[in-house]
Amino acid sequence: MISFKTFLLTFFLPWLFMIILSMAWVNVGLCGEDTPVELESTIVTAGKIKAAADDFPGSISIADGKFMEEHQAGTTEEMTRFIPNIFYKTSTSGDAFVSRGISTLDTSIYTPMGLYINDVAYPLSYMQAQSLFDIQRVEVLRGPQSTLYGKNSSSGVINIVWAPPGNEMRAGAFVEGGSYQTWSGGAMISGPIKKDTLFYEASFMGHVTDGYMENQINRSDDFCDDQAFSGRGTLRWTPSADLDFSLTLVGTDRDMGIGDLRYLNGPSATDRFRGYSNHSDRAEQNSLGQSLRGKYRFGTLDLLSITSHQSFTRNAVMDADRMLLDLGVAEIDLDQDSWSQEFRISSSEGFFSSWLLGLYAGRDCVDNDWALNHVNAMVANQRLSDSDTDSFALFGQSTLALTHRLDATVGLRMDHVAASGSQTYIPHAGAVTYSKDISETELLPMASLSYAFTDSINGYFTFSTGWMAGGYDYYFATSEDNFAYDPEYTMNYEAGIKTAFFNNRLRTSLAVFYTRIDDKQVKEEVPGSGFTAWKITNAAKAHTTGIEFEVNALPVHNLEIFGGIGYARAEIDDWTGTSGGEFVNYSGNLLPWAPDLTANVGVGYYLDNGWYGIADLFWAGRQFFDAANTLEDNGYALVNLKLGYVFDHYDISVWGKNIFDEYYAQKKLKDSMGNTMVEDGDPMTLGVTLRWRF
């Protein structure tokens, strides 16, 4: 792997130097460009009050829907490749966002980073794989966001915003074909039913692929196929200038192969993209959500109400051994229902330059059944679990202008979680049932100072706190003693600076941070089990230290240059566990599922005659998949290219992802015999896309 220093000297600094030099040329007129050009100032709602992104006292990245389309970022996973210090952990055991090196244990169904779509939380890890068709923008906040959002988020928030339907008639569609028999298509329409009063929006998207894995037992090439369909509809009513109501229905239906896991060594080892399975290796996921959003403005105050309900199911069957022999099959049946109600009142006028106060109540009901059916009756077991969790929170923050350049922001969250859970564990020896109640209350403060050095240079310092509530071990528990685990806490210190130079043609942001993690939720081996039993505990203390830098430049009206780099060293401070029955001190190791480096750089050139070309690179550094740091991916670079032509209302393009077919691992683990299993990353794919807009 290329070292971080070598990367900086070889790749990043020359890019930065070239950008600044080109801006200097433009500024003194050497380019001969008379057309005024500048980057648009982005107004965001991630802070829950509309404001310029540069005024937000924290690390925030913005990408709009047009950028996503142009760069073939059609999913949340692909989106994160343009955001420094955000990584998307994807595996058959669940997806999750990793922010600044703060990851979660592999089998957790909840994650420390929150995902919101139009103000509605998507709490389960399986829900974080989302398509990004017909969105207005994505706002990514790094660091704890306890005082802004209804459902607590201890490491950051990804806020996806849809464009509300209005008087403007909009319509669009696309069709796309690519490698491995991959086809995608979608359509949307939005406009008025009654001008100024009643509006609608509807969209639909489908995606099918055979996938790139092959089952060596039956030579099936749809080992990891995927069929996903989603749709949403919104009805918006504005009876007056001060009232705004939106009713939204959204649903997904996904049927996918999950045979990605293969042996890297041992007697059942296979080549890349080849595996063994004696079973169907399939997962069916369905979700249905409804939300009612009401906004009322009276005087200088905005009152917002968000009522939502979501149901989610996942039924999965997977070969438990990945060998030629048919030894066992694992099955999961997950059902989740979530209800929430949030009220927020806010203002950007008066004594405080801005303030908000929020009240949140939610209920999550989880029914999670898991079974291992094995030819060895001593190994076979089953767990039938259910839990009900009630959450209540009062949160708020306010900003006071101390001087015309200096602002102070303070915030506080009071969070209470009460849960009850039960599980029936059915091993060979016979069934045992146990239950556990959880009751936790936390106060989470934040404070920040921001200073405008000039009209184009802003700096800030922020202190914030977060927590990830305790929960239940649905997959490894054997008794009441190890059925539940406690909360995980984060304390974050961050300083940053944001700039806009050369008549707003060059924007940069720089942040440095230190985050302490206490009572880290981890999966560890039960002493004396010898790789046969696991438990979830709060055994670790850790910290993450790092830096992130982003740059966006528009040297001339048809040239776009961007880049970002994030470095996060997530180090274990205190954790003594067991491995193979022996005590092991993990202190000084790096947390698993946390790449130390994420970087991207890209350029887009748009000719006036309709032709355009785009190139971008994503770099992920070294990461480990276990606390012992024995399972490792050395890092990888993915290069993507696109060539297109725009005419009238159409856009046709050809593209390639990972064009050098870089190999990388998305997951590694060891079996009970010490052999390594791996899930391969995506290979090179090529495709063509046709878009139509009205």
UniProtKB/TrEMBL annotation:
Annotated membrane topology is: Multi-pass membrane protein
**Which biological process terms from the Gene Ontology are attached to this UniProt entry?**
iron ion transport
Task: Fetch the InterPro entries from UniProt.
Answer: Beta-barrel_TonB, Beta-barrel_TonB_sf, Plug_dom, TonB-dep_rcpt-like
Chain segments annotated as transmembrane: none
Q: Which residues form a coiled coil?
A: none
For this protein, the record's PROSITE patterns field holds:
TONB_DEPENDENT_REC_3
Q: Where in the cell is it found?
A: Cell outer membrane
Name assigned to this protein: Iron complex outermembrane recepter protein
User: Per the UniProt entry, what species is this protein from, by scientific name?
Assistant: Desulfocicer vacuolatum DSM 3385
